[in-house]
Amino acid sequence: MNRIKKITIYIVTACLAASMSGCALTDAIKEKITNGGDSGFTAVENNAQNEVSNSISVGIFDFDTFNPLLTRSETVRECMQFVYEPLFDVNENLMPEPVLAESYTVSPDGRTIDITLKNNVLWHDGSNFNAYDAAYTIKQIRSGITTYTDTLANMADYKATGDYSLQIVLNYAVPNYVSLLTFPIVRYRSDMSMNSGYIPNGTGAFRFETQLSSGKMSFAAFDGYHNGRPQIDNLYAYLVPDLQKYETMFEASEIDFMTGDTVDLSEYTPRGSAKNNEYITNKLTFVGFNLRREILWGAQTRRGLAELIDKDSIVNSTIYSKGVACDIPINPSSLFYFDTNTRFKTDELLAQQLFGNDGWGLDEEGKYVRTVDGKKQILSFEILTDSDSEEKVNIANVIAENFENFGIGASVNALPYDAYTAKINSGDYDVMIGEMQIGANLDLSPLISSGGNYFGYTNTNLDTLAGQIGMTHDVEEMKELFRQYGGMIIEDMPFTPLFFRKGDVFSSTKVKNDVSPSVTRQFRQIETWSVK
């Protein structure tokens, strides 16, 4: 299986002198491309030209553009986290923290957010950051040309209400909306043409300095950084031809970082000395029940099925501990997580009781059956999964075995991804293995909103609770509302969470500090890092 997770666009190179200005650099790259310069890199230079010891290095492949809103390359996006900043970030507990923002207020109905921006932030070119930069960035995202368009789907309007104030109006209240404002902010009138010669100009800890060679670029500590000059002097970015070279360079300590978003760590484990800064992502794997199927109408039936799934076995044996089991669909790192379970094993006695509550009982053959309106029903179904994912197929097989061992007929239907999603979208399935990236604001409406979800599920009380969460920003009140929210989902069980996947950010041993990744940024508090 190909370990590359992102679509390859193309790789360009330019042989440029170290003394070029930003404007000249752009012209040189354009000229190089015009003259056939996008033929790829022949090699990465391993000399230490102009390199200082107080430095860190990253690798880039699938290079397309340094514009952080447009790039499709995961390695470029990661590199630009050193250069660009968002309005907000979320911390390890998934709580929003201002970055370019100073503070914010929310209207009583949860629909209007007024953001005060910092007034001491400089762009790397020396100009002042202001609200018009933020508004310009939002305009580009809402236009549909960036990789962040879905993030702002609920935004009804926005405007700069002053040099350092921004107002956002939502279609409806959602929890912690500012946790979605974690995209990089670009300068007003930045080039949005997917230009491969785009010169990055951010507000972050490191500024673009020069291209040292055809395969190496230098970023210098930004003296005017609003959080104070970084302790590390230089960041070097190596342009590499492919994933294999990227992995090799990390193992040889030629680059200092590698992430699970770039490398499929279920198939590859880096050799050599490295620290894994592990965190829990917002990617939830779950079992979904089609409530359009009569045998699955009863919440007691669905809860009984959930009690038969050995989540501990799935996490420890099937995905090799690369996830954290849970009973509620809230990230275990979140301040609002409240699972009290420490063991997520099968509970056959409770399952039997729940099935009985819905009229199911064992027949002489050891199968669960019931009679409804004079017709015999057998508790038997098909589990739909994605054949392109060996892991999902294995999960489906484990769950089918759990059910079969308890007298419930279960077969696995593994289809190619397009056919798998088509069946889900049309509601043509019984039970399915699903996976979803939940937003940083913990909004579960795509899974359970009565306005439309995969399961044919409707609960207006749950919709009301979601709105109440969106209208408060008192942490203790939100905790209580999330408890009610999660409890109601468990009670109805339109789907049962299996686990949240773990994420990985490997750093070399020369980096002294914890990298502290979160669900929105792998590299945070960069200015505090130091090297041995």
Query: What strand order characterises the main sheet?
Result: 14-21-13-20-18-19
Helix percent reads 10-25%
CATH structural fold name of the largest domain: Dipeptide-binding Protein, domain 3
Provide the number of structural domains.
Answer: 3
Strand composition percent: 15-25%
Gyration radius, rounded: 26 Å
What do we call the CATH homologous superfamily of the largest domain?
Dipeptide-binding Protein, Domain 3
Q: What is the CATH architecture term of the largest domain?
A: Roll
Intertermini distance: 37 Å
Tally of individual helices = 12
Shape: globular
List how many beta strands DSSP finds: 22
SSE class = alpha+beta
The main β sheet shows up as: 6 strands, mixed
Instruction: Name the average pLDDT.
Output: 89
The CATH class of the largest domain, by name, is: Alpha Beta
Uncertain runs with pLDDT below 50, 5 residues or more?
1-50
